[in-house]
UniProtKB/TrEMBL annotation:
Domain of life: Bacteria
Name of the protein this chain belongs to: C-type cytochrome
GO MF terms, alphabetically ordered: electron transfer activity; heme binding; metal ion binding
Pfam families named in the record: Cytochrom_C (PF00034), SoxA-TsdA_cyt-c (PF21342)
Length: 347
C-alpha cells in the first residue's frame, strides 16, 4: 500500500534547489576531470585549441549600412584588384599589371602567415626604414599599388582608398588578438651558414612551382583574361625591385608558409627552410630574369643606410659585405656584425 505524504510547498522548493545544486556540482566535477587529464595531448580537442590561436576573422559579421558597403567593397578590391582598378578596371585604371592584392595578402589579408593585415589599421602610422620616415596607412597602401602592382597612387579621398581603409578597420575591430595569437607575421626561416642557391632553387622551382607559375615565370591568366589565376613571379608584369617580395629572406618566409598552395594549410609547411630560401633566390635572381624598373630614378630606398634589411641587395652599405652576400647570404655574418655594434638588424 502506497502512502502519499503531503509536503509543504516551501519544502518542495528547497528539495528542488538542492537537487539542482547537486547536479551542477556533478557536472563541474566531471568537466574538471576531463580538463585535468581526461583528454590526452594531441587529441581533436587539443588540436582545436591550437588552431584557435591562429589569427582569424569572420567576414560574415561585416555590418550593414553605408560603412558596411564600404567594407565589402574594400574586401572586393583586395580579392579582385585587377577587375576594379587594373589596366582595364571598371572603376579606374590604377594598377599597371593584372595581379590582385590577395596574391600576396592571401584570403584578402586574413590568412595567417601570408602578409596578414589584421593589425595594419592599429599599426599605422609607423616608421618605415625603407622610406626613412613615418608613413600613414594610406601611404603604405599606395606603396603596394605602386611597387608590386606597378601602378599610380590612389587619391587619398577616393572611394577605393576609403573602402580599403574601412575594410582594414573592420579587420582590426573584429579580431581578438593577444600575445598568443599566431600568424600575424610571416613565418621565420632558419638562416643557414651557406648562401642560398639560385641553381638549386631552379630545380626546386621546376619540381614544385612550374605547374602553376609556368617555366618562364609568367604565371597563368584566368579564363576571362581580367586577372591571374596564378600570378607571375618574374618578368615585366611581375613585382618590381623594391617590393618586399623581391627580398630573398622575406620571400622565403612567405613561401615556407604558403607554397605549394595545395600542400600547405595555415600553420603547416611543405618546403624546408633551405628549400624556401633556394627557390626565393632563383625567383629573385635578376641575372636570370627580367623585372620592371622603378618609374623614377629619384626613388631611394633605405636612405639611412644602417637601417637596411640584411637581404636588401642595393648599396651603399654601412657594413663590409657585398651586394651579392646581402642578397643571397650567408646572412649570419651580417647579423653578427650589426649585433656586435649593439644594433638589431632588420630581417
Amino acid at each position: 500500500m502506497i502512502k502519499y505524504i503531503k509536503v509543504n510547498k516551501k519544502y518542495q522548493y528547497v528539495v528542488i534547489l538542492f537537487a539542482i545544486f547537486v547536479l551542477a556540482n556533478s557536472v563541474q566535477l566531471f568537466s574538471s576531470c576531463n580538463a585535468n587529464g581526461g583528454t590526452p595531448a594531441g587529441s581533436a580537442d587539443s588540436v582545436t585549441t591550437a588552431a584557435d590561436s591562429l589569427v582569424s576573422i569572420d567576414t560574415a559579421k561585416i555590418p550593414h549600412g553605408k560603412y558596411g558597403d564600404a567594407v565589402k567593397y574594400g574586401r572586393q578590391l583586395m580579392l579582385h584588384t585587377a577587375y576594379y582598378i587594373g589596366p582595364n578596371g571598371v572603376n579606374g585604371h590604377y594598377t599597371g599589371n593584372k595581379m590582385n592584392c590577395t596574391n600576396c595578402h592571401r584570403d584578402a589579408g586574413t590568412r595567417p602567415y601570408a602578409f596578414n593585415l589584421v593589425r595594419s589599421f592599429k599599426d599605422y602610422p609607423q616608421y618605415r626604414a625603407r622610406e626613412g620616415r613615418i608613413l600613414s596607412l594610406a601611404e603604405r597602401i599606395n606603396n603596394c599599388v605602386m611597387r608590386p602592382n606597378l601602378g599610380r597612387p590612389l587619391p587619398l579621398d577616393s572611394r577605393e582608398m576609403v573602402s580599403i581603409m574601412a575594410y582594414l578597420k573592420f579587420l582590426s575591430d573584429s579580431s581578438h588578438v593577444d600575445a598568443r595569437t599566431k600568424g600575424l607575421k610571416n613565418m621565420t626561416v632558419e638562416l643557414p651558414d651557406v648562401a642560398a642557391s639560385s641553381d638549386h632553387g631552379e630545380k626546386l622551382y621546376a619540381q614544385h612551382c612550374e605547374r602553376c607559375h609556368a617555366k618562364n615565370g609568367e604565371g597563368k591568366m584566368a579564363f576571362d583574361n581580367v586577372a591571374y589565376q596564378y600570378p607571375p613571379v618574374w618578368g615585366l608584369l611581375a613585382y618590381r625591385p623594391g617590393s618586399s617580395m623581391h627580398r630573398v629572406v622575406k620571400l622565403a618566409q612567405w613561401l615556407k608558409a604558403n607554397m605549394p598552395y595545395d600542400k600547405t594549410t595555415p600553420g603547416t609547411t611543405f618546403l624546408t627552410d633551405a628549400e624556401a630560401l633556394d627557390i626565393a633566390a632563383y625567383i629573385n635572381d635578376d641575372k636570370k630574369h627580367q623585372r620592371p624598373a622603378a618609374k623614377t630614378t629619384k626613388e631611394e630606398d633605405y636612405p639611412n643606410h644602417e637601417e637596411k634589411a640584411i637581404d636588401y641587395d642595393k648599396g651603399p652599405f654601412k657594413d663590409p659585405f657585398s651586394e651579392q652576400q646581402h642578397k643571397y647570404g650567408p646572412y649570419k655574418p651580417i647579423i653578427d656584425y650589426w649585433e656586435g655594434k649593439g644594433i638589431t638588424p632588420v630581417i
